[in-house]
Amino acid sequence: MDTHAAPVPAASGAAALRDLILRKLTYTLGKLPSEARDRDWFVATAMAVRDHITERFLKQMQETRGREGKHVYYLSLEFLIGRLLRENVHNLGMAEDLRAALADLGVTPDQARLAEPDAALGNGGLGRLAACFLESMSSLSIPAFGYGIRYDHGLFRQILRDGWQQEFPEDWLSFGNPWEFARPEIRHRIGFGGEVVAEARPDGSEKLTWQPGEWVDAVAYDTPVVGWRGKHVNLLRLWRARAPDPLRLDAFNRGDHVGALGEQVRAEAISKVLYPADDSPAGQELRLRQEYFFTSAALQDLVRRQLRQAGTVTTLADRASIQLNDTHPAIAVAELMRILIDEHDLPWAEAWRITRGAISYTNHTLLPEALESWPVPLMERLLPRHMQIIYAINAEHLDAVRAAHPGDDALLASVSLIGEDHGRRVRMGQLAFVGSHKVNGVSALHTGLMRETVFRDLHALHPDRIVNRTNGISFRRWLMQCNPGLTSLLTDALGPTVLDDSMRLEALRPFADDAAFRGRYAAAKRANKEALAVLVQEQTGVRIDPAALFDVQIKRIHEYKRQLLNVLQTVALYEAIRAQPMRDWTPVVKIFSGKAAPGYHRAKLIIKLACDVARTVNRDPAVRGLLKVVFLPNYNVTAAETIVPAADLSEQISTAGMEASGTGNMKLALNGALTIGTLDGATVEMADRIGAEHMFLFGLSASEVEEKRAAGWHGAQAVDASDTLAEVLEAIGSGVFSPDDHGRYRELVDSLRGNDWFMVAADFDAYVAAQQRAAALYREPEAWRRAAVLNTAAMGWFSADRAIAEYAAGIWGVPTAS
């Protein structure tokens, strides 16, 4: 922390802010303005802004000391926070002062902002949701902590070499992080391995004590999270792994200079990389170590706070609400039981009451591979005491089921915390369900499917436990910050209250019929498209026309998200334009961006196919610029902030029943993109509010997908019925787009003719028809603009503020700011 700067002035305008930035540059960074680079100006500016946040936070602590209420503790393996300068300045209401302050110093806000690294501490929607939710908790004045891992390297940096994804470390911390406060005094010891020993108590009972064979320290780093208009500040506390003894001096002095660092390397690997590949036993162990590491640190930290404030752990459930963001922190159920029983000598029944009363669990997926399970031998070796506790929880749980349903062995096997199907494994989703007082899905469709599929039998046993909390997004970042042109238009039309109450957007509906307003709305969109065109040319060298329809699919590359379906339709459109040059085609720019998991070969092959198609299409003079295809590399929050406001068409084309909610769908529609999509996830609820007539919906429903799978569907049926699909698959499979390797995509094409699990072939013709409807409407500019305005007007309900208010009222039991 900077000890040289004077306190932040009580009334700080542009001049005071300028002086504070200059002091930071001089005394903290040791730089003269004449030699400062953009990075230096960013760090100095961030530290000055952080001082303002800190002043508010410390004042808030003083005002609430002695009357602390219930806290929310949000445990997430991912926090995709992105760049923070613009968000913090915006929420503090300092944007104009900062602009003037930097101008006096000969710097622009963009010089400072663009020098900030993008903190990619997440993989996609789950991590971005966690970041939005933390900001909303601050905006609603809910006392909260976010808990996660301070990864040295977040999600990998994606480089495309000849269309193939390659992964490189993302060095977001290479120049330090000016937003955070290192808290070396806040550290918790995390154990692994060892044994459990039995000790006799004076009353003759037995006490089990875990004696770990290995220790790792979790060291805290706090990043303040400021809410809208600076009303409240919460903390994101991220843990860094450190070895208790960083150097084995005896080994070093013997000449084993590398071996002396072995314990440090093993310990620090825990917080080294987000999502290490887990397709090997060592990778699986590291992933489990990560999950237990941050979960144990968080629980030890909140129990310490509970003892400091209340003096006892018995009231923990009344003072703490612990939200598990997916199954990654599900080990919290066993860890909290261990802390309460082993360290605080609570009876089992009381510890279980407290644990279930404090913990709630958000499920984010129905995909079997994402509902984590761990091999029992790995758990017994790495976390032996927790395995004992899980066995005890399971025995008590199954006894209750057996008593209510005697003789039903199939039910017992279904709801057991230990699965027996593919070797004995601990089912973390079941553990989280049994150990929580509430379990929520993240869209109405997803919650219903949870009740019917993955948790069907547990839901039958506990019919009141599963509730729905449809996801939401932060309008501060995804409208006000990334689309200032549209925001200004909305405040002019609806008044400044729209900045505080997203539901005021409903009043925008009549403006859809106002030709002058539609013109201003279109002008704002055009400016955003021009900005994206600049970014595309800088990153890919491809020139795109802002007048064309910008068709955008930005998300993690996965077969169920069906980027492949989009590529197939792109090929079909390409072939049609070449075959029928006389037609009045709608100019289209297909924009793809997203990362594939390093070990996901099929997803990487889809990226390569998209790049091969782009190369072929963009070089073909016969297309006459009517179709352009680009794949933007290294998708992240910063890229999304440019792409989202510029999109005309939002691709939400997942296989129905497989997307839990989606949040990109909300961001794009809020910014006036029309959705082309299946009735999946929260798109169903968006259609209810926007009106299906203002979207391009197509394809099988979730129930129809299941019916086809049950009936043994094969994609060859769709290929035989569609000349267009057959021609597209023949072109791809024969090497038209891969002349250097004619067989590159043969296996991919064969899979579509075969199982077609993700219904790509099944939905192809319906998707092509929906694309044709979209292209036709785009040729009617006034009708398109009207639909775009109505999309924006309908999105007020999909705010993270609304979602968090629902969590607070129905799950956490905490009040929110009025």
Automatic annotation (TrEMBL):
InterPro entries in alphabetical order: Glycg_phsphrylas, Glyco_trans_35, Pyridoxal_P_attach_site
Entry-linked PROSITE patterns: PHOSPHORYLASE
CDD domains found in the cross-reference section: GT35_Glycogen_Phosphorylase
Signal peptide: none
Keywords: Carbohydrate metabolism, Glycosyltransferase, Pyridoxal phosphate, Transferase
The UniProt record lists the keyword Transcription: no
Highest taxon listed in the record's lineage: Bacteria
Catalytic activity: [(1->4)-alpha-D-glucosyl](n) + phosphate = [(1->4)-alpha-D-glucosyl](n-1) + alpha-D-glucose 1-phosphate
Coiled coil: none
Cofactors required: pyridoxal 5'-phosphate
EC assignment: 2.4.1.1
Keyword Oxidoreductase: no
Enzyme class of the recorded protein, top EC level: transferase
Family per record: Belongs to the glycogen phosphorylase family.
Function: Phosphorylase is an important allosteric enzyme in carbohydrate metabolism. Enzymes from different sources differ in their regulatory mechanisms and in their natural substrates. However, all known phosphorylases share catalytic and structural properties.
Name of this chain's protein: Alpha-1,4 glucan phosphorylase
Organism field: Roseomonas nitratireducens
